[in-house]
Design a protein that fits this description.
Shape: globular
Structural class: alpha/beta
Largest sheet: 6 strands, mixed
Distance between the termini: 59 Å
Strand content: 5-15%
Number of helices: 11
Helix content: 40-55%
Mean pLDDT: 94
């Protein structure tokens, strides 16, 4: 799988229309790709164990998508093999009153991964240049007028680029996924949520309201990707009409990132090995407590 075709590093502007949401590569069905995903997940778990033990690098994984884009299922399936002790998942919904009283990055700062761990953001601070841009929500903030002028979104793009560079300089790597779903596929997923009782809870009137802004959101995503994609914190635009294929691409990207980090278990010194030998001997010769 050539994951490079989905990678955006900011070298030149992209147009979302150039990315096929229906793409499935050389695969034709879920069955064809299931074993490949399982293999990726298994190797990811091995690298994540080393990442945790080494404690040098943190990994921030961001998932963004239109409603019903498949973020939840991608996280569930791709991260199924990792050790929960080393991973935290955060879902960023509409900000609370407390969150709105702080700067827009405040709630994300609190959720950043320590080195050695992985943090997964289901939506993120990018909402503040997406939904906030589409609905001009920044105009409603209780802040000085100078903080909500026509350049607000452009300033936030700059903040985000600098923020992700700051993370990089502090040992945290940012990987960003945009699960690119078509409007037709979103419609089918919405209908599925209405038809299937077990999925009714997933659908609200606001989903339809936001769908009416489809073109505005596509433009907002395109602008955000172009403004914030860099070599050190790239975007990956993932074809998401077929969930099984999007999961495969995401797993391949994350596996590539972990391989590139190449974490290792801490090396044991000769002195430590001698001590371990003594501990082993002590445990072997320890009298058993027979009941």
């Amino acid at each position: 799988m050539d994951i490079g075709r989905y990678k955006v590093t900011g070298r030149s502007p992209i147009h979302l229309d150039d990315f096929n949401t229906h793409e499935t590569g050389s695969f034709t069905s879920n069955q064809d790709i299931r074993k490949a995903v399982e293999k990726n997940v298994l190797e990811m778990a091995q690298w994540q164990s080393k990442l945790y033990a080494e404690g040098k690098t943190g990994l921030l994984i961001i998932f963004q998508a239109m409603d019903a884009g498949g973020k939840d299922s991608a996280i569930k399936h791709v991260m199924s093999g990792v050790n929960p002790q080393g991973v935290e998942v955060y879902s960023f919904k509409q900000p609370s009153v407390e969150e709105l009283s702080h700067d827009y990055m405040w709630r994300s700062f609190k959720a950043l991964p320590p080195r050695g761990k992985i943090a997964i953001f289901n939506r993120s601070y990018y909402e503040d240049v997406l939904v906030v841009k589409v609905h001009k929500l920044y105009e409603q903030l209780n802040v000085p007028d100078r903080c909500k002028d026509a350049d607000t979104i452009d300033k936030r793009y700059k903040h985000i680029r600098h923020f992700e560079e700051y993370l990089w300089d502090n040992g945290i790597i940012t990987v960003k996924f945009f699960l690119h779903v078509s409007k037709d596929e979103q419609r089918e997923r919405f209908l599925s949520r209405i038809k299937e009782k077990d999925k009714n809870w997933k659908f609200t009137k606001s989903d339809l309201d936001e769908r009416s802004f489809w073109n505005d959101y596509q433009n907002a995503y395109q602008s955000a990707v172009n403004a914030t994609a860099t070599k050190i914190s790239p975007w990956y635009i993932i074809p998401a009409d077929k969930k099984w294929y999007s999961r495969a691409v995401v797993s391949q990207v994350l596996l590539h990132v972990l391989r590139d980090i190449h974490p290792q278990y801490p090396r044991v010194t000769q002195e430590q090995r001698k001590a371990l030998s003594k501990y082993k001997e002590w445990l072997i010769n320890e009298p058993l407590n027979k009941q």
